[in-house]
Specification:
Elements lengths: L2 H10 L8 H5 L9 E4 L5 H6 L8 E5 L2 H10 L4 E4 L21 E7 L7 H12 L2 E12 L4 H15 L5 E3 L5 E5 L2 E3 L4 E3 L3 E3 L2 H4 L4 E4 L4 E7 L1
Parallel strand pairs: 1-2, 1-4, 2-3, 4-5
Antiparallel strand pairs: 5-12, 6-7, 7-8, 9-10, 11-12
């Protein structure tokens, strides 16, 4: 399936310079570290680093074989791992488990868990933590609820495809919450059809440190 490549193309509409690495490098120094790009498609993070990340330090894991073949052709020195992982939205027939050949200093995922269930997100994080080095960290990018362009894009896309989308309502701090039985549930993320999940920062801060990026995303930092 071409889902992650397609998702990347959609999100590029809202990223001013189509560059993942530069805004990340302003907050994190990832040079000379072993990096796992979970859902890395054709090597998006490596590609946008323009040589700052060495291909020999980079591993991409994805369900999209075609995208990974493009990455492998461009960066043969990097590691490319196709896993037929289960994804309720993108690969419901997937049966593989996360099994990796080594440990990493950094595990990075760009907007992958905006499109999975919360339970799958937590389960996957617990698994990926077992592949961290002693001082390793996980950085998860999620769409910021402050990015109204991206939020409305995905909401309208699901209304167009499915005919409806759970209502979004705001609190006094201009944050979005999930509406359940016409009541605001502040302790759960907003969920829409086809698993569009928009986490508010209050909710995410229970699981790790929050970093805000100018590209309309937040980064959740987790350690072992």
């Amino acid at each position: 399936m071409k889902v992650f490549a397609q998702l990347w193309q959609q999100l590029e509409m809202y990223d001013r310079d189509h560059d993942l690495y530069t805004p990340l490098s302003q907050s994190f120094n990832w040079e000379n570290l072993k990096i796992l790009d979970f859902g890395g498609s054709r090597g998006n993070l490596l590609r946008s680093s323009k040589g700052k990340i060495f291909p020999t330090n980079y591993t991409s894991v994805d369900v999209d074989i075609e995208a990974m073949e493009i990455g492998k052709k461009d960066y043969p020195e990097a590691d490319w791992i196709h896993l037929d992982l289960y994804s309720p939205a993108y690969n419901p027939a997937g049966i593989a488990k996360i099994e990796l050949p080594k440990k990493y200093d950094i595990v990075f995922a760009y907007s992958v868990f905006t499109h999975t269930s919360f339970e799958y997100f937590i389960e996957t994080m617990n698994t990926l933590k077992t592949y961290l080095t002693q001082n390793g960290k996980i950085y998860i990018s999620m769409i910021s609820q402050e990015n109204k362009k991206v939020l409305n894009h995905f909401k309208n896309k699901r209304i167009s495809k499915y005919g409806s989308c759970d209502d979004l309502i705001k609190n006094n701090n201009d944050s979005y919450f999930y509406l359940v039985d016409n009541k605001v549930e502040e302790e759960v993320p907003f969920v829409c059809e086809n698993l569009l999940v928009l986490y508010n920062e209050k909710f995410l801060s229970k699981y790790g440190k929050i970093h805000k990026l100018r590209m309309g995303h937040v980064i959740l930092e987790l350690t072992i």
